[in-house]
UniProtKB/TrEMBL annotation:
<keyword id="KW-0694">RNA-binding</keyword>
<feature type="short sequence motif" description="Gly-cisPro motif, important for rejection of L-amino acids">
    <location>
        <begin position="137"/>
        <end position="138"/>
    </location>
</feature>
<keyword id="KW-0378">Hydrolase</keyword>
<dbReference type="GO" id="GO:0019478">
    <property type="term" value="P:D-amino acid catabolic process"/>
</dbReference>
<dbReference type="InterPro" id="IPR023509">
    <property type="entry name" value="DTD-like_sf"/>
</dbReference>
<protein>
    <recommendedName>
        <fullName>D-aminoacyl-tRNA deacylase</fullName>
        <ecNumber>3.1.1.96</ecNumber>
        <ecNumber>3.1.1.-</ecNumber>
    </recommendedName>
</protein>
<dbReference type="Pfam" id="PF02580">
    <property type="entry name" value="Tyr_Deacylase"/>
</dbReference>
<dbReference type="GO" id="GO:0005737">
    <property type="term" value="C:cytoplasm"/>
</dbReference>
<comment type="function">
    <text>An aminoacyl-tRNA editing enzyme that deacylates mischarged D-aminoacyl-tRNAs. Also deacylates mischarged glycyl-tRNA(Ala), protecting cells against glycine mischarging by AlaRS. Acts via tRNA-based rather than protein-based catalysis; rejects L-amino acids rather than detecting D-amino acids in the active site. By recycling D-aminoacyl-tRNA to D-amino acids and free tRNA molecules, this enzyme counteracts the toxicity associated with the formation of D-aminoacyl-tRNA entities in vivo and helps enforce protein L-homochirality.</text>
</comment>
<comment type="subunit">
    <text>Homodimer.</text>
</comment>
<dbReference type="GO" id="GO:0000049">
    <property type="term" value="F:tRNA binding"/>
</dbReference>
<dbReference type="GO" id="GO:0106026">
    <property type="term" value="F:Gly-tRNA(Ala) deacylase activity"/>
</dbReference>
<keyword id="KW-0963">Cytoplasm</keyword>
<dbReference type="GO" id="GO:0051500">
    <property type="term" value="F:D-tyrosyl-tRNA(Tyr) deacylase activity"/>
</dbReference>
<dbReference type="InterPro" id="IPR003732">
    <property type="entry name" value="Daa-tRNA_deacyls_DTD"/>
</dbReference>
<dbReference type="GO" id="GO:0043908">
    <property type="term" value="F:Ser(Gly)-tRNA(Ala) hydrolase activity"/>
</dbReference>
<keyword id="KW-0820">tRNA-binding</keyword>
Length: 145
């Protein structure tokens, strides 16, 4: 399981020209699901994500989490994060979770996130999405479990 976190001042997802998810200041989270990922991993990832200190405190140090700031979280499924890029010039997706299984785990992860955090928006699983963001910093981290 991989989550690419980007600290943003704004982010949104459009599908077919319609906005399906949008946040102000917070985190854009691109989520890649691999074979063997499960609810327990999703829970650990969400705990880490909500507590990960990427926002400035009063002294300008990254010492506050999205839970501390009350910022938004935009969760977007990102199949390509599961690519194996170690060989050649074409990515391999053999380690990616099959789409039907991934959709179930993505929806479960989204529901668990909504149960834990007030301001959550999401993309549309499997859709051709247009994601726009203003990366604040830029600040980007890859969390892997």
């Amino acid at each position: 399981m991989k989550a690419l976190l980007q600290r943003v001042s704004t982010a949104k997802v459009e599908v077919g020209g319609e906005t399906v998810g949008e946040i102000g200041a917070g985190l854009l989270v691109l989520l890649g699901l691999d074979k063997g990922d499960d609810e327990a991993k999703a829970q650990r990832l969400l705990d880490k994500l909500l507590g990960y200190r990427v926002f400035a405190d009063d002294e300008g140090r990254m010492n506050r989490s999205v839970a501390d700031t009350g910022g938004g979280i935009l969760l977007v499924s990102q199949f390509t994060l599961s690519a194996d890029t170690r060989k050649g010039t074409r990515p391999s997706f053999s380690s990616a979770m099959p789409p039907a299984e991934a959709e179930g785990l993505y929806n479960l992860t989204l529901q668990m996130l909504r149960d834990k955090h007030a301001d959550v928006a999401a993309g549309s699983f499997g859709a051709d999405m247009q994601v726009s963001l203003t990366n604040d910093g830029p600040v980007t981290f890859l969390l892997e479990l």
